[in-house]
Amino acid sequence: MFVITKSVGGRPYVTWDQIKEMQKSGTMEIGSHTLWHPYLTKSGKASQEINESKKTLEEQLGTEIIAFAYPFGNYDDRVEKLVKDAGYKVARSFSTGNGINENDRFHVPVVRVYANVSLERWKSQLFPNN
User: Which of 111, 9, 3 is nearest to 57 (CA)?
Assistant: First the structure.
């Protein structure tokens, strides 16, 4: 779940207690989705959005946040560098496709999951080379 930190607790968003409960379940990874969800390629505050959201999540949850989702799936070389420099290990884009490239962890595509797709088929979509 990617969190817009300044929206936590506002309607219709989740609260910090709900996020902590999801984290404790061990079935949900929490990642950052910035402070306010801006177009980072157009923002003069991209570094602040990327870094402060990570810091807030880490303080609230007591764990390292390694995943980031580009708002609107929008990024460029500058934004990608800011995400890497902030210490994230992976970033999700908004492109669709099959396969996670282990050598390109900052352009992870969205892999759609449908109710009629078996776990084996979904696994092959995520990791087609395994």
Answer: 3
